[in-house]
Design goal:
Layout (H helix, E strand, L loop, with lengths): L1 E5 L2 E5 L7 H8 L18 E4 L2 E4 L13 E3 L1 H4 L6 H8 L9 H14 L10 H12 L7
Parallel strand pairs: 1-5
Antiparallel strand pairs: 1-2, 3-4, 3-5
């Protein structure tokens, strides 16, 4: 049995060496918030954090990871969907069908963290969204 650290919990799984992390998360660990979209790391629906960095789990072999690496899925981003970005998504009616939203949220959270912008409970919904949009347009100042 192989082991991983997922959402702060050490978990065990059994899979072939080439099994993508996505399928271990969804099928063996029942963490279905991370979605399968394209299977070639282009759409981002499968984005998770590995040691804080966004990674496309559909092309990351689970066997390439160790228990020392911290994997965070959308379920582990914050309890009860309380992360400021999750609140912002809801408050500003961002989701449409919602299928790829977990991947977008994970990518946005990693972007804010990488740019060292405050992502805490005091960050307003609008500030969170504007910070992500500003970073996409080259602005590194927090709103």
């Amino acid at each position: 049995m192989a082991e991983l650290m997922v959402n702060g919990r050490q978990v065990q799984f059994e899979a072939e060496a080439d099994t993508p992390l996505l399928w271990v998360l969804r099928e063996q660990l029942s963490l279905t918030g991370t979605k399968y979209g394209c299977g070639v790391a282009q759409c981002g629906a499968c984005t998770v954090h590995i040691d804080g960095a966004p990674v496309r789990s559909c092309v990351m072999p689970a066997s390439a990871l160790t228990v020392a690496q911290k994997i965070t899925t959308i379920e582990g981003l914050a309890p009860n969907a309380s992360h400021p970005l999750q609140k912002a998504w809801d408050a500003l009616d961002v989701p449409q069908c919602g299928f790829c939203q977990s991947g977008m949220l994970m990518a946005a959270a990693a972007l804010l963290k990488a740019k060292r912008l405050s992502v805490n409970s005091k960050l307003s919904s609008r500030t969170a969204i504007h910070a992500v949009v500003g970073l996409r347009h080259g602005d590194t100042q927090e709103s």
